[in-house]
Amino acid sequence: MKRSLAVIANYVLLILVTIISVAPFIWMLSTAFKGPGDDIFAFPPRFIPSDPRPGNFAAVFKAIPLARYFLNSFIIVGVSIALNVALSLLAAYPLARMKFRGSRFIFIAILSTMMIPTQLVMIPNFVLTVQLGLKNNYLGVILPGAVTAFGIFLMRQALLAIPSSLEEAAWIDGAGPGRILFSVLMPLVKPTTAALAVFTFVGTWGDFLWPLLVIDKDSMLTVPLGVQKLQGTFMNDWRLISAGTILSMVPILIFFCFTQRYFIEGAMTGSVKE
Predict the structure, then answer these.
(1) How far apart are CA 75 and CA 191, in angstroms?
(2) Does an H or E element contain 43, and which?
(3) Quick one: how far is CA 130 from the chain centroid?
(4) For 134-182, what is each residue's pLDDT tens digit?
(5) Peptide bond preceding 224: is omega within 30 degrees of 0, i.e. cis?
(6) Which of 15, 188, 11 is nearest to 97 (CA)?
(7) What is the domain class of 63-268 according to CATH?
(8) CA 171 → CA 46, 105, 162, 205, distances in Å?
(9) Residue with more model confidence, 86 or 263
(10) How many CB atoms sit inside 10 A of residue 203's CB?
(11) Domain with CATH 1.10.3720.10 in the chain
(12) What is the model's pTM?
């Protein structure tokens, strides 16, 4: 009886937490469909619009060149995912599968960079970006995050979880390090690769501060910067802002739906193996 009550209490608590977490998104979705006759800030909130206006989403594309901003974001995100996955895998392979002097020190040094706040290196990165002539350039946004310590750590842990017998068999068959990495090990870490791709997608797609520093040309803006332009100095149309925010979330949801089968498994792979 006590156990049943505990289970019921846990479910009630989870439902309450879910409602509290989802309510702002439901309110934002509701606001995106509301018309001029609906009071956005009514209390208690009215989640069902009296005069639904799906045209608010089309109005966003008329207010700002959102299609261009989506193209910019897709280019930046696509290249960032490819570079982070490839470079993290190449860096993790020798740290996980090869024995050499100083490997542990190098790994600890890489992990220690995760403790450095991103804001601390923004000024040096910005100065270097300007000196290289990469301001208002896709590479200026991409290169500072081309490879991350978290990505190297995640891929190293996944590679450590693979039995060494597979690698030894490949060595006996005459395969070299490159062939072993791409033909034997890489197919076995697909879940972790997908997890890293999701983390990179979410982090790069939603990044606001660094693109704001590097980009000031309207045609080069990313989606978060473009949606921010919907906010005026003296008056805000929260219907368009909410519609633009919803549109900016759609690619993340779609990408996660396609990779969710690998995500949980990849995020947990090798998490405690050393």
Answers:
(1) 23
(2) none
(3) 25
(4) 999 999 999 998 999 999 999 998 888 888 887 778 787 777 777 888 8
(5) no
(6) 188
(7) mainly alpha
(8) 66, 27, 15, 40
(9) 86
(10) 15
(11) 63-268
(12) 0.84
